[in-house]
Amino acid sequence: MNDFILATAESQTMLSHMGLYGLAAIVEDGGLEGVRLSWTRGMTPRPVLSAPRATPETIGEIVRRHAARHDSPESWPSRPVRNGEQRALMSPRITVITSREDWESLQDRRHDVLDRLTDARAMLDLRLIAALGEPSYWRFNRQGQRLQDDGASRLEMQPRNQGSEFVGNRIRPLAAAVAARTAAAVSDGLLGRTIRDEIGGDAQASRTPTGFASPGPTDNALAWCALWGISQFPIAHRTQRFAATTGHIGQGIAGYLYVPVWDGQWRTARLRSIIASGQLRRFARNGLSLDDSEPDDPTAGQWLANRGVTSVIRFPVKRFGSDSAPERRAMLGERVKTGRR
Question: Residue 292: what pLDDT?
């Protein structure tokens, strides 16, 4: 097995976890066999992707090809809500839709994308789209106003100022930036040898992390993988409340995000099953003062420890900016140990 270590990625930053998850999903989808995920030992564990063919050249080329495929005019990120406009069809949060005809058109066009991806057996694409959610036509407040954003994942933290949205303002430009690199430049960015923030202009206030870290220059290959890491966090739509997002606890846009750190090597399927488990959610919730009827579970930590989880990292989500265009951000995480050594 060869180890590909994200050497500058720290466990206290949500971006590091999402980068590992997305990278594993992308390279596995791209044909790399025997993919395993793990963390280095020590005081500052780093995320590791392992596979028999996990060389920098192989991984860099798979990620580059993946970005290039989604940078093409025929790809689903390139599809607009309507022909001739910039808003992306598959974004879960877009400018308010006001008429029944526009809602029906939106749904017809979205269903066409899903049918095409299903026919192509593009499972990772379908996972990401499902995990992102969709504009909510079914949710209204007491005044009869549609709560259009309530069908979106809480991991989708793209600021909505000036009409911006997730697919058009993050997926599209990141796909173009990563596709324009060489395979070596992609792997160098993932390994932490270089940091190139093409879409953020390498600015100190760059929003390329998209809520998974504080603003700042972020390598675009790492950011690309991190956004695809959302594919590992399914959501459940609800008629009476906002969508329930795996890896999120709390009310509305506040609360916490949480992820596991484990001992040993995991397959991506095992990662998804642990992330979606009720035991992980209940353990992450222990000791927090949240308006939630779900009780704490004193056995959850032992259940997780038995499966190799050494700790859970909780990231408080803070809100910045204006009320009209709030920016949500996962702050530095707090480690909660399960008791496994």
Answer: 60
